[in-house]
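Hi R.,

Here's the chain you asked about this morning:
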Amino acid sequence: MEDVKIEDVIKIEDIIKQENLVFSKTKNLTDKTMSFCPGCGHGVAHRITMEVLEEMGISEDTIGIAPVGCSVLAYEFMNIDMQQAAHGRAPAVATGLKRVYPDKYVFTYQGDGDLAAIGTGETIHACNRGENIVIIFVNNGIYGMTGGQMAPTTLAGMKTSTSPYGRDVETMGAPLKITEVVALLPGTCYVTRQSVHTPGNVRKAKKAIRKAFENQKAKKGLSFIEIVSNCNSGWKMTPVDSNKWMEENMFPFYPLGDIKDEFKLLQK
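And here is the predicted structure, written out as tokens:
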């Protein structure tokens, strides 16, 4: 019997490990431990976005823009080319980058206080122009990092540090459904609202992100993905309770699913 070399045994072990591999972290995430609050949806949103880039083989050709707030932590974890923007200005920076580097994939990663308040103008006009970029918008209905203040997306009656008795619609206005607003604009080709609080919803959100980057590859215009998430720290709840509260309160006002898909309509 021929002698078995140690190198051959190692190769066989490697093959077995690969066959039994269930999950492997994408190379597009750094090795730093994520510093988001336990139970926060940002970490999952980061992971599936970076997985999409790796699976599409476009990691080296992608530029991400994240502004201020919890989104700014993306620079610590996303192992791709990143560019910081002033609070609310990510769509404007993304516009400039995409026009200078039209062959690059460009996306923004923003929170609701950033995108729907300080950066409302930049958001609306980038969508209206139909810039060929992807906007990923995490909506937890509050300013998460800066003190838990009321945001444009804060629900009616919802308590925050600046609305301690609950949001009063009569004096503070109604919550802003910015995603429905941008869906009305001619420059948006795909507008959807997803979540990442269950495995099934994570799969749907990842599929939506993949579709958005495929749209950019095909030069179809702007794709806008809202991810409704929790903020258990800002909401003063446990992660489990915050997910339950989100299902019972956020989803009825911010229903999940596609809002606009221009090319699905054209196929009918």
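One quick note: The mean pLDDT is 92.

Cheers,
M.
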